[in-house]
Amino acid sequence: MRTDATIRIGPGESIAAAVDAILGGDTIVYPTETFYGLAASPLVERRARKTFRAQGARAGKPVALIAADAEMAFALAATIDPAARRLAELFWPGPLTIVMPARIGLHRALVGEDGGVGVRVSSHPIAIALTRAVGAPITATSANLAGLPPARSASEAFAAFDGKVKVIVEDGDLAGGEPSTLVAVDGRGIKILREGAISAALLRAALNIAE
Fold it and tell me: What is the pTM of this model?
């Protein structure tokens, strides 16, 4: 489904239009430290239901989030294990998504079957600026059409989502490579759900966990 003409925001330009779009319940494309992502805020007056449809929540996979800082990230959790705090201290901002027990009231599309919510603090300045300006976490789903890899360049993002999102915030070619590592921390130890940019060995070493 096409929307109105997509607004393109180039490097160094104001992100005000992107912030307004998110606050209005629309979806945007924005850069992270790995790939381009699709952003909306499910915590802003719960106006982003269409985002979950667009981002694949219909497939039953929970939607991960990006927060501005650890305080915003931990506010999503019902409990915070010391191991989660330790990993956050060492690897945030950066490509580590920590899954923690979700607090009551989060949108069901954010919560996995085990009751966890995944969140990270991005090291990309635009991602941080967006979450700070919105005042709430934003979704971190990779920007790609079904069957295609996540967009690593602004041109790939525009080709895939022109006319389908409200705004595209461009920052040239991104690092690409591996996606964020996904680790669950719930008081019973840690579980590597997806090994990505940060190795499982590095996480275990950080927590003094033997192989």
Answer: 0.90
Q: What is the DSSP string of 29-47?
A: EEE-SSSEEEE--TTSTT-
- What b-and-e string marks burial along 34-47, b requiring 16 or more CB atoms within 10 Å of the CB? bbbbbbbbbbbeeb
Query: What is the per-residue pLDDT across 175-200, written as a single tens digit (0 to 9) for each?
Result: 888 999 999 998 788 999 999 999 99
**First-residue to last-residue Cα distance in the chain:** 48
User: What does the pLDDT average to over 42-54?
Assistant: 59
The answer for residues whose C-beta is within 8 angstroms of residue 150's C-beta and 6 or more apart is 34, 35, 36, 142, 143, 144, 179
> Where do the domains of the chain lie, and which CATH numbers do they carry?
7-206 (3.90.870.10)
- For strands 190-194 and 181-185, give the pairing: antiparallel
Check if the beta carbon of residue 170 is closer than 8 Å to that of residue 8.
yes
Strand 138-139 versus strand 28-31 pairing type: unpaired
**96's tokens:** 């580590």
Distance CA 173, CA 175 (A): 7
Residues in the chain: 211
